[in-house]
TrEMBL record:
Organism placement in taxonomy: Bacteria, Pseudomonadati, Pseudomonadota, Alphaproteobacteria, Sphingomonadales
Gene3D superfamilies: 3.10.450.50
A Pfam family: SnoaL_2
Top-rank taxon: Bacteria
UniProt domain SnoaL-like: residue ranges: 7-123
Natural source organism: Croceibacterium salegens
SUPFAM superfamilies: NTF2-like
Protein name, per record: Nuclear transport factor 2 family protein
Matching InterPro entries: NTF2-like_dom_sf (IPR032710), SnoaL-like (IPR037401)
Signal peptide region: none
Coiled coil (residue ranges): none
Length: 130
């Protein structure tokens, strides 16, 4: 994966084009972050469709390193609430590990994201916050 490839991936994510995002993934991928595991296109659409109905999430790439087997990204992820995402709503979705956010609130966090690659496609994703 090149920086240009990843820029296209991030642009699709920022545009909420979940099908284009999932097209970057290998067959049977595993995305695991913050207690969430996504392995199918429908799961990706369900999770992000839900989250993005409450927040506008954008990824700003600061650093990128890539090879045939790994892409490593340091990014600022910006979350802006467009509606109240309450504890009750999160709990009803089984997302107790996530924090509520009020409409208009903005959070920015540095994330380190590792993508394991297979034949140029993302096979698994791991992420850490600072």
């Amino acid at each position: 994966m090149t920086r240009d490839d990843y820029e296209r991936y991030a642009a699709a994510f920022n545009a909420r084009d979940y099908d284009a995002v999932f097209d970057f993934y290998a067959e049977n991928p595993r995305m695991a972050f913050f207690g969430i595991e996504i392995t199918t296109r429908d799961q990706l659409k369900d999770f992000y469709g839900f989250m993005h109905s409450y927040v506008r999430e954008t990824v700003e790439i600061e650093r990128f390193a890539g090879s045939e087997e790994l892409a490593a990204v340091e990014a600022i992820v910006r979350i802006e609430a467009t509606a109240d995402l309450t504890r009750e709503i999160l709990d009803a979705r089984g997302m107790q590990q996530f924090f509520p956010i009020a409409k208009g609130e903005v959070q920015e966090m540095r994330q380190y994201i590792h993508y394991h690659l297979k034949y140029g496609k993302i096979e698994s994703v791991g992420c850490a916050l600072v």
